[in-house]
Specification:
The chain is α+β, with helices and mostly antiparallel strands. The protein is built from six helices and 15 strands. The strands form three sheets. Strands 1, 2, 3, 4 and 5 form a five-stranded antiparallel β-sheet that branches. The chain is elongated.
Length: 290
């Protein structure tokens, strides 16, 4: 580190542009600004200096420790005051913890956008989420990890509650007939997705499966007891057949709402004395492949 300006030597030749090397053990107080500090046994000095390794002027703060050592804080913004440099360094760990928590809990580094504005929005959203989480953690005495787990659990709990509360579309039909039909149609389904499509209208169920890679298509129509709006929804054939195979009653009841929400399968009992079986199955839909 060199002083910003050199003293004239009076010798011939090019005038010195940079000053002498800074002696941190014997600081010339006439060339520095003394900053106030909370500790009486420490000294803090601010000055403008030239950094040889950076090849530029810097705003430098020299912190003399009680045992004789020293620490250097600097900013490449030469117009920044020494007090501001000190304050930025005092908040350094808070800034580092903020970046750490944003990476760990809110996917700061997971944005795959390339546009500067989109990246700026993603980064600001991550830091905003971290700050909001820290406020909630301080109010409820929780860690960010625990808070995130509680929010995820609450989200899925609400999704499950929604499934049970709002299922206006109801299908009642013979379990064995539905199982056999799905099994036949699934032979023509895509081997990766195993998707079969249910299209429900009036009291008719249309089951179809298609594999565009192999140019295969299968369709079947079944009579059923259906009440609700016209609906088209997809299921994984293997999972659906496994559920149907574990129902002992002759009839089943399937309740559904929309193509992107889970349905519920119950054993259907025309008479309560028919079976003592009590079972409920949650069947997740798959995205329809057109």
């Amino acid at each position: 580190m060199l002083l910003e300006h050199g003293e004239p030597t009076g010798k011939p030749g090019r005038p010195r542009v940079k000053g002498e090397k800074i002696d941190f053990k014997n600081i010339d107080k006439s060339k520095v600004t003394i900053l106030d500090t909370d500790k009486s046994n420490e000294q803090v000095y601010a000055l403008k200096a030239w950094c040889k390794s950076l090849h530029r002027k810097i705003s430098l703060v020299i912190h003399i420790l009680p045992k004789g050592g020293h620490r250097l804080y600097f900013s490449t913004d030469e117009n920044m005051s020494g007090r501001d440099v000190m304050e930025y360094y005092c908040t350094r760990f808070q800034i580092e913890f903020c970046f750490r928590d944003a990476k760990q809990f809110v996917e700061l580094t997971d944005c795959q956008a390339r546009d500067t504005r989109k990246l700026d929005f993603a980064f600001n959203s991550s830091f905003t989420a971290v700050n909001a989480a820290k406020i909630m953690c301080s109010e409820y005495n929780l860690s960010i990890g625990r808070l995130k787990a509680l929010m995820i659990n609450a989200y899925y709990a609400q999704r499950i509650i929604d499934v049970f509360e709002n299922n206006p579309n109801k299908l009642i039909m013979d379990r064995a007939m539905l199982y056999d039909s799905v099994k036949r149609v699934a032979l023509f389904a895509n081997q990766i997705s195993n998707q079969v499509v249910f299209r429900l209208k009036d009291n008719e169920l249309f089951i179809s499966a298609e594999d565009t890679d192999m140019a295969t298509l299968a369709k079947e129509k079944l009579n059923c007891n259906y009440s609700g709006d016209e609906l088209e929804i997809g299921f994984n054939a293997n999972f659906l057949m496994e559920m149907l195979n574990n129902i002992d009653t002759e009839l089943l009841l399937m309740e559904m709402s929309t193509p992107d929400r889970a349905g519920i399968i119950f054993p259907y009992k025309e008479e309560e004395e028919e079976s003592n079986e009590s079972i409920l199955m949650l069947v997740m839909p798959v995205m329809l492949v057109k």
